[in-house]
From TrEMBL, chains A, B:
SMART domains: Iso_dh. Signal peptide: none annotated. Keywords: Lyase, Manganese, Metal-binding, NAD, Oxidoreductase. Belongs to the isocitrate and isopropylmalate dehydrogenases family. Its EC number is 1.1.1.83. Pfam families: Iso_dh. InterPro entries: ICDH/IPMDH (IPR050501), IsoCit/isopropylmalate_DH_CS (IPR019818), IsoPropMal-DH-like_dom (IPR024084), TTC_DH (IPR011829). This is D-malate dehydrogenase (decarboxylating). Its cofactor is Mn(2+); Mg(2+). SUPFAM superfamilies: Isocitrate/Isopropylmalate dehydrogenase-like (SSF53659). The keyword Lyase applies. It is an enzyme of class 1 (oxidoreductase). It catalyses: (R)-malate + NAD(+) = pyruvate + CO2 + NADH.
Amino acid sequence: SRSYVIDAIPGDGIGVDVTDVAMQCVDAVAGIYGFGVQWRVRDWNSDLYRKAGRMMPVDGIDQLSSGDGIYLGAVGTPDVPDDVTLWGLLIPIRREFDQYINLRPMRLLPGVVGAMPGIGDLDIVVVRENVEGEYSQIGGRFGAGTDGEFAVQESVFTRRGIARAARYAATAATERGGRLVSATKSNGIIHTMPFWDEVVAETVKEFPGVVVEKVLIDALAARLVMKPTSIRTIVASNLFGDILSDLVAGVAGSIGIAPSANLNPERRHPSMFEPVHGSAPDIAGKGIANPVGALWAAAMMLDHLGEAEAARSLTSAFEGTLADGTATPDLKGTATTAEFAAAVLSRLS
Amino acid sequence: SRSYVIDAIPGDGIGVDVTDVAMQCVDAVAGIYGFGVQWRVRDWNSDLYRKAGRMMPVDGIDQLSSGDGIYLGAVGTPDVPDDVTLWGLLIPIRREFDQYINLRPMRLLPGVVGAMPGIGDLDIVVVRENVEGEYSQIGGRFGAGTDGEFAVQESVFTRRGIARAARYAATAATERGGRLVSATKSNGIIHTMPFWDEVVAETVKEFPGVVVEKVLIDALAARLVMKPTSIRTIVASNLFGDILSDLVAGVAGSIGIAPSANLNPERRHPSMFEPVHGSAPDIAGKGIANPVGALWAAAMMLDHLGEAEAARSLTSAFEGTLADGTATPDLKGTATTAEFAAAVLSRLS
Ligand SMILES: CC(C)[C@H](C(=O)O)[C@@H](O)C(=O)O
Ligand SMILES: CC(C)[C@H](C(=O)O)[C@@H](O)C(=O)O
């Protein structure tokens, strides 16, 4: 029978709480649909860093490469600098496995009150370029400690990198009404953005049913607040996609519900699935983290593995639970993480 | 009697409509408060570019330097690349006159329906660093036209540049409850942002009454949608400030109401005042542009000139007009630009 090897990295803070619950729900749905999931749970987190000086073993990437997918909770903790936790784990996984698409869908979920009225049919997919752009390794400081100190960061956009993100986004847009919004900032001084516009426009020409609308990032942020349902599919650079996807999650009611798939679309390497939220040290261990983002990410993973029915079933289960009025405090409910998960499990069985 | 020389650059599109109206209202309020405004109206815009190949004369900056302030409508037109219109006019003015603060206040104005309910006491000031950061001259393309083509853009943050923005913002925060939100992205790979955090933190130490809360730009975008009234004062880099100020205007109901002051706080050079909105070619010439952003920017100019009472009077006049239910279509009203302005003028007299 079908079986998948998944590396689970619960990580830090509420990452642990939501991963725990998500693994249970995935196991339940796997049982129903007749496949197995073999979890390799990794203790790669800030504790390991404190003990061993590394977020993951030297051969961590190698270890992951034999699996069918990676499931991440969240990383980050107040006493370790974020660049250590993220550069030690999250970013290398995204890059070494060429997970060049970060897919971030959002809908107004049943039972959830969005930030503003009249957005019942909110349904947005952000296709974020995930391995280049504003997040490059090139940069640093000059004259540390002096009055003349300065820091630089180089954004790097390649034709290939933009084109493949645009291609993925255009394919997504084809099934989503054909209109693709490209987030840009080509009206000023940022030399990379007219290049972004050009390559997006050229690439989308390959897709007869798709029309690109380029929208300046500042205007787009405002439009997502004023007319969020006027947008279905967005293609954005690494930084812009990061900002926009959190913004859209805010519009839909909570960052706690937002999922994220870091995809290597050609499947040469494992892809990684994670909720958008961070480790949230302020509520870690309180048992009140919203597991919806994690469950939705798990459903995206099942879909990626080819288990579309199981993915739909898991999605219906958490949506049904929300529709029933069961929700964690971030959604103004009173359920704990465990209570929410129990309701999802009982819907599955 | 007191008199000020103001260079008015109506620019393109609706910039012309709103500047026209704003000058009338400023003249009216000046008459009441006993000072004069000598307008030097400049035809520096895309038409000039089409005729003369320049957005402003070779000695444009010199010409402006003798004035007491600059009032700009908007620049940009579909058939001229934005980098031409902006690099030929807006950006050089900001830089040559070292207008290193871009001040962007926003409130929920009377009579205006915000994007979401319960934000009646929305009152946010974005202090945007305005001459460095992500908007640097350094960048370009390599291998144009080849498969290996790439483009780079260098962000440059200096200690001095961050510190003076933080100092201005901390001063503003002192009078606004003491809490200063610093927009950052220091949790990843962007080398400049930990430096931003450090210099902001050090600088704000000089202000005993001010507490800095650093918030990641992605989380901040979501928070501005979910809890906009939890934030009063924001300090942000050039790009982040650009995005956040449009977002906040969207939350408050329309980009058409948002003002912007490009300040040289030491008054060594003239400062520039402009609405945040662009030239909006789609509605240019239709007489329906919202003049509130322009009027609010004019009030900020009066305040900067030392005419605080006149500034307050102009502000009350456009607020009163809105409170009466007079509003342009972007605010779901039916007034034209001229009707709105007439109502403001009749309140002033
Ligand atoms: C026109 C553009 C270059 C400008 C900017 O990004 O600074 C505008 O969006 C603004 O905010 O004034
Ligand atoms: C943690 C951080 C580096 C990361 C990012 O910006 O990519 C996060 O915000 C995300 O969106 O996954």
